[in-house]
């Protein structure tokens, strides 16, 4: 980050003729209009290509070494993960590597996060597999994408995956062009936690078939997955199970060792590549794929990605593809934004959700053009990159170069990688997303948020992950609507010897003066709650009159917690004023904010109530009400 110079420490140069002559040369500087045009063009270019901003500020001497090391660390991690996630998506292994190549370069150019590691991830692979299962008729026949029994079905499936990636890119770019990045704020943290927990459970169960050694029908509902798993236990292959458990144990041992010491934290990224090398070596040395029947990746296409623009058309089952692309887009954006914000917070950076839409849009467009399926930010790889010292997108480019070298020279080696090792890498990677502690915390703090978490999780587990996300969002919106329709209307009392006020219970002495009612509405006053607020006002008035055996003569309405009023809310307040007036009651308004005050003025309520009865502070409104009550009491006394 560049720093401004300390101008006070700079030497003051003598005013010589040479300096004066130089300052008076009008031809040495462009005209002001031309300067503005150049500045606008530069800003426009930096907006279109965010990478220019960090490249301009990049300290090559101080940061390049860190970026090279971080990129190499992520590179050795992304290769086995990409192969594993491609198998989960029921795509050839090379497609996973393609997804870790072109999209990384595109995001480095257009993304706003310097440490986000874009590429294939488990959750998107699961959603793609589930979505294409209903789109491609022969998807059930796909058991080994690298050696398909039905090449035509696999080819149709591959084409559909590319088309979904294109649709995801189009959705992102359209949302970015409309500046709708704020939509990411509609997904609450309970929904994120619940969805990731359910997704991790389903992903883990979907990989168990590679550990037990027998085929399980494609399912995404937990109870059916467990049923089919138990039904085929008589076909259990112990060699596959023991080998897979060995790799899972190795991965967790390396992860635990890395967590014990800061000096060993670099080991955290070495788990997948370690298991990859050990598993390939064991299969090659022991000929386990021939002697013990251990399933391996098999034939794997090498070389740089093909150009797949020709696969974009024709599109079959467009409505279903749009549904799949929409669910993947939502989950991908959710995952990428949450990771990018977490890392940016640690470094004091800022993330632009709208720019992230463009970054992910161009990343998926590049993937669709060069053999990649939908991609997004990876939790594990992003935090490994950040912990390894990544300073910019150069680290991601280095990781992509390692993927490219693997495609060019190392694909024959990966053909002997056992499927149980791929499953172990996936399971070990997603188990960290399961967060039951979050549910316990939500239950203690907020039952409503816990309800959102529970609905999202249960529906995702037993109906489907896309339905789980939709029901989670729907439940959160229903709770928000309920809170809007039934806001808190609290009675306030003044704290003794101060200008502060606090909510009170009816069994306490709520006011210093009988006949005065102080109320605060917490929320907007709008069409959804105007009648409810009116009912609460009437209830509090009757209750206060009964408690003190004195009719209410003055109502002070604290508007400090009212964020907005629509025309229905304004009409309701006008009705309250008229009703109070006919009953000889006074209405005082206090603390309207900068959004509510103009509405009161434009609607005429400000003048109708009277400027002297609208106060900037609550204590002023209460003092005015007390003065009115005192004057009314003296008038009653004189009349008496």
Report on this structure.
- The chain is mostly helical and 640 residues long.
- The chain is 62% helix and 5% strand.
- It folds into 2 domains: 63-478, no CATH class; 487-639, Transcription Regulator spoIIAA, CATH 3.30.750.
- The strands form 2 sheets. The protein has a 6-stranded mixed β-sheet, with helices on both faces. Strands 1-2 form a two-stranded antiparallel ribbon.
- β5, α22 (530-548) and β6 (554-558) form a beta-alpha-beta unit.
- α4 packs antiparallel against α5.
- The radius of gyration is 32 Å and the shape is elongated.
- The termini are far apart.
- The model is unreliable at 1-28, 507-511 and 636-640 (pLDDT under 50).
- Keywords: Membrane, Transmembrane, Transmembrane helix.
């Amino acid at each position: 980050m560049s720093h401004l110079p300390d101008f006070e420490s700079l030497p003051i140069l003598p005013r010589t003729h040479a300096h004066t002559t130089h300052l008076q040369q009008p031809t040495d500087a462009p005209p002001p209009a031309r300067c503005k045009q150049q500045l606008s063009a530069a800003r426009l270019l930096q907006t279109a290509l965010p990478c220019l901003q960090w490249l301009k500020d990049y300290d090559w001497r101080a940061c390049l070494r860190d970026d090279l090391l971080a990129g190499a660390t992520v590179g050795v991690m992304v290769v086995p993960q990409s192969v594993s996630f491609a198998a989960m998506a029921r795509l050839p292994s090379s497609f996973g590597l393609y997804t870790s190549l072109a999209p990384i370069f595109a995001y480095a150019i257009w993304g706003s996060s310097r440490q986000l590691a874009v590429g294939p991830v488990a959750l998107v692979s699961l959603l793609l597999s589930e979505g294409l299962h209903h789109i491609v008729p022969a998807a059930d026949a796909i058991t080994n994408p690298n050696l398909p029994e039905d090449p035509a079905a696999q080819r149709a499936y591959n084409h559909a995956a590319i088309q979904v990636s294109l649709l995801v890119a189009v959705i992102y770019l359209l949302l970015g062009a409309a500046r709708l990045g704020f939509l990411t704020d509609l997904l609450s943290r309970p929904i994120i936690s619940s969805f990731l927990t359910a997704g991790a459970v389903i992903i883990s169960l979907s990989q168990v078939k590679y550990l037990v050694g027998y085929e399980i029908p494609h399912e995404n509902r937990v109870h059916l997955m467990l049923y089919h798993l138990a039904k085929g236990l008589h076909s259990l292959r112990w060699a596959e199970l023991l080998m897979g458990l060995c790799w899972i144990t190795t991965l967790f041992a390396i992860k635990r060792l890395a967590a014990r010491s800061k000096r060993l934290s670099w080991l955290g990224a070495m788990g997948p590549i370690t298991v990859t090398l050990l598993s390939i070596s064991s299969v090659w040395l022991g000929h386990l794929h021939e002697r013990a029947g251990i399933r391996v990746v098999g034939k794997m296409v090498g070389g740089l990605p093909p150009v797949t623009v020709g696969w974009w058309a024709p599109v079959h089952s467009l409505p279903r593809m749009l549904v799949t692309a929409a669910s993947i887009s939502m989950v991908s954006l959710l995952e990428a934004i949450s990771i990018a914000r977490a890392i940016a917070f640690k470094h004091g950076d800022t993330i632009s959700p709208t720019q992230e839409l463009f970054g992910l849009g161009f990343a998926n467009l590049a993937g669709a053009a060069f053999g990649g399926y939908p991609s997004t930010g990876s939790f594990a790889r992003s935090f490994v990159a950040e912990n390894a010292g990544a300073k910019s997108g150069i680290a991601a480019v280095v990781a992509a170069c390692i993927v490219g070298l693997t495609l060019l020279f190392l694909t024959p080696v990966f053909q002997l990688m056992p499927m149980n090792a791929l499953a172990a890498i996936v399971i070990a990677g997603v188990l960290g997303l399961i967060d039951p502690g979050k549910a316990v915390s939500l239950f203690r703090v907020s039952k409503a948020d816990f309800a959102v978490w529970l609905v999202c999780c249960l529906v995702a587990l037993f109906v489907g992950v896309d339905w789980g996300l939709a029901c989670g969002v729907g439940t959160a919106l229903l709770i928000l609507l309920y809170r809007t329709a039934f806001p808190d209307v609290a009675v306030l009392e003044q704290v003794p010897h101060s200008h502060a006020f606090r909510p009170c219970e009816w069994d306490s002495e709520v006011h210093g003066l009988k006949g005065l009612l102080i109320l605060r509405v917490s929320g907007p006053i709008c069409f959804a709650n105007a009648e409810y607020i009116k009912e609460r006002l009437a209830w509090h008035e009757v209750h206060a009159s009964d408690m003190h055996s004195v009719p209410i003569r003055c109502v002070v309405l604290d508007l400090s917690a009212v964020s907005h009023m629509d025309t229905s809310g304004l009409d309701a307040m006008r009705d309250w004023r008229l009703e109070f007036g006919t009953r000889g009651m006074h209405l005082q308004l206090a603390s309207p904010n900068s959004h509510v005050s103009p509405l009161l003025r434009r609607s005429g309520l400000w003048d109708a109530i009277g400027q002297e009865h609208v106060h900037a502070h609550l204590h002023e409104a209460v003092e005015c009400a007390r003065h009115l009550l005192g004057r009314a009491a003296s008038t009653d006394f004189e009349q008496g």
